[in-house]
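Before relying on records like the one below, remember that each one covers exactly one chain. Contacts with other chains, cofactors or solvent are not represented anywhere in the record.
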Amino acid sequence: MNVKANGVPTWVTGLAALIGLFSVVAGTAIMADPTIMDIDDSVVGRQWGGRNVGLGIALIAAVAFRDARAYMAAFAAGLFRDIGDFAGALDDGASPIVPIVFLVVGVIAIGAIFQAGGLTAKPAWVTDNIR
C-alpha cells in the first residue's frame, strides 16, 4: 500500500504517522489513568489525553487519505495545541522545551508541505483513480 501523498515530503508522512500513533497511544493511556503523567487533576489529565487522541487520529487520517490539505489541517491544529501547552508550561513554572520542540517541528512540517506544492497538489487517491 502506497501512503505517499502528492505534495507531502516522505519524511513528513513518516513524522505524521509516528506522532499520530504516539498521540493515540499516550492519550488513550492517560485517559485511562491520568496519574501516569503525574497530573494532579484527573479531569485535566483526561482532557489532555482526549485532545491528543483526537489530533493523533487527524494525523493518521491525513496519512491514510493521502491528502496534503489534511496534513495541513492536522499540523495546524497541533500548533495550537502546542501554543496552549507552551502557555500552560509558563503558567505552571514548568519547562517549555517540549512544546517548543513540537512547535518548531510543526512549523517545519507545514513549511515543507508548502514548499513541496502541497496546497496545489491533487490528493493521491484522486490521481490513483485517473490512471
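The chain has one domain: 10-120.
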